[in-house]
Amino acid sequence: MSSSPPSSSSTRALKIGIVGFGAFGQFLSKTMTKQGHFLRATSRSDHSQLCQKLGIPFHRDMDEFLESENEVVLICTSILSLSQVINSMPFGSLKRPTLFVDVLSVKEYPRNLLLQVLPEDSDVLCTHPMFGPESGKNGWQDLTFMYDKVRIRDEALCSSFINIFSSEGCRMLEMGCEEHDELAARTQFLTHTIGRILSEMVVEPTPLDTKGFQKLVQVKEGTVKDSFDLFSGLFIHNRFARQQMQILEEAFEKTKQKLQERLDNTR
Ligand code: NAP
Questions:
Q1: pLDDT tens, residue by residue, 4-34
Q2: Confidence at residue 267, expressed as pLDDT on a 0 to 100 scale
Q3: Which residues form a coiled coil (predicted)?
Q4: Does ligand 1 come within 6 angstroms of the Cβ of 41?
Q5: Mean pLDDT (whole number) for 91-109
Q6: Residue 163 is assigned to a structural domain of this protein
Q7: Considering the domain boundaries, does residue 34 fall inside one?
């Protein structure tokens, strides 16, 4: 793991094709457009009207999208749909060696799949911006950008892409995909799980709120803004998440048991 920033000497406009133009793809596109990169997009749903407003060409046809000489293909689909999306891409339509970058919130799974299915001359950069439309709405300064240079031959192109994030002031964190998943299960997955549990209860602001309770409400509200697909993906495609769920269950049982013992002793 290293958090030294990559060289900032590599600013140039890139041709970036976004696959999956949902909430997160749209969010990233705003900053990339502001920086002067040339974007195009494709997605399962028809986002052509929005793209037209944003000045981004939208392709319904994947052949056409891949033929359009993107230097970078940025994968922003849901974790659950990755396999279907990747396996239906006609890679024969690529006109040049391409850098494939994913932004999925799990990392071993896309790394393994991309290495398995992409043409050998494609480079692979696995990333996880540790922020989203809510936490990054006022800029990306000091927000963490995790990346793993899984298979990089064109270093200049890779560092130009990484520079999109470092030039916005992100905290750059180079880390292996396995270490990412282990830590993310203990941090992000735990937060989302607690938030989802709270959302199954009535956890709303009251006139009597403590600061601690206000933070709980924030956790609940923050996590339910993300799709349930995203949350399920964190569980299904991170092998460390199952273990974390078990630790949480055991901790809950242990806490209940301790209270029960106190109750029994006061009788
Ligand atoms: P999401 O629910 O995880 O993904 C929505 C995207 O997946 C949309 O582009 C949607 O396409 C596509 N999709 C869903 N099911 C599909 C299917 N069956 N076939 C093809 N495409 C399908 O929500 P998100 O917040 O936009 O996240 C996108 C990715 O970014 C995820 O991998 C997530 O882990 C990652 N990420 C998100 C955040 C965040 O804060 N939201 C932060 C870091 C990383 P259509 O729009 O065309 O329907």
A1: 444 444 679 999 999 999 999 999 999 999 9
A2: 81
A3: 238-265
A4: no
A5: 97
A6: yes
A7: yes
- Does residue 232 line the site of ligand 1, with CB under 6 A? no
User: What is the Å distance from ligand 1's center to 62 Cα?
Assistant: 17
- Nearest atom, ligand 1, residue 77 CA: 7
Same domain for 140 and 233, yes or no, is no
- CA 218 from chain centre, in angstroms, equals 20
CA angle in degrees (0–180, nearest 5) for 246-248-253: 95
Ligand 1 atom nearest to 76, measured from its CA? 29
Write the DSSP string, 17-40: EEE--SHHHHHHHHHHHHTT-EEE
Helices (H) and strands (E) in the chain, counts: 11, 8
Distance from residue 228's CA to the centre of ligand 1 (Å): 10
Domain range spanning residue 76? 15-175
Model-level pTM?
0.94
